[in-house]
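User: Design a sequence. Structure:
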């Protein structure tokens, strides 16, 4: 027989996963009841779990990744970052391979638009907007998640271009 503590932990993992996927609390509860039947967490327990997840999510510090542009190093910019309570990740100089806009965002966009001829700026703007609107929900998140492995790779190759 399974330990009730293990089952609760398992349900919490399911809640965490579905919450991150953007599934509503009501839908999460319906799924839990469908699978765990009478052993499913109550709706009020589920709501408490979700509240806690939101609290933790809000309490995480926002980190900004800046390149070394003078505007990002200006005293007024640094003061604003500190005033907002944000943290800052220093960007190694001459490392465009660590900028998500370079290694992920614009490379994919250029690939998508390659070979297309636009009659004016508005047509181009519309195509770019359509491209971003058509991306899957996790597209941008996944691109940013690659940053950690790219930083590790950069350290591994002692700062050489990756």
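Assistant: Done.
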């Amino acid at each position: 027989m399974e330990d009730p503590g293990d089952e609760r932990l398992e349900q919490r993992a399911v809640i965490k996963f579905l919450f991150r996927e953007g599934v509503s609390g009501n839908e999460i509860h319906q799924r839990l009841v469908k699978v765990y039947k009478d052993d499913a967490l109550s709706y009020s327990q589920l709501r408490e779990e979700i509240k806690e997840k939101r609290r933790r999510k809000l309490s995480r510090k926002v980190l900004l990744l800046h390149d070394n542009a003078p505007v990002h190093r200006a005293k007024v910019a640094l003061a604003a970052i500190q005033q907002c309570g944000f943290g800052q990740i220093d960007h190694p100089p001459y490392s465009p391979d660590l900028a998500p806009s370079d290694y992920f965002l614009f490379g994919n966009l250029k690939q998508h638009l390659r070979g297309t001829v636009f009659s004016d700026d508005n047509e181009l703007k519309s195509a770019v907007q359509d491209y971003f609107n058509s991306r899957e929900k996790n597209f941008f998140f996944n691109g940013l998640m690659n940053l950690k492995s790219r930083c590790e790779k950069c350290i591994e190759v002692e700062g050489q271009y990756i």
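Residues 25 and 65 are 33 Å apart (CA to CA). The chain has a mean pLDDT of 83.
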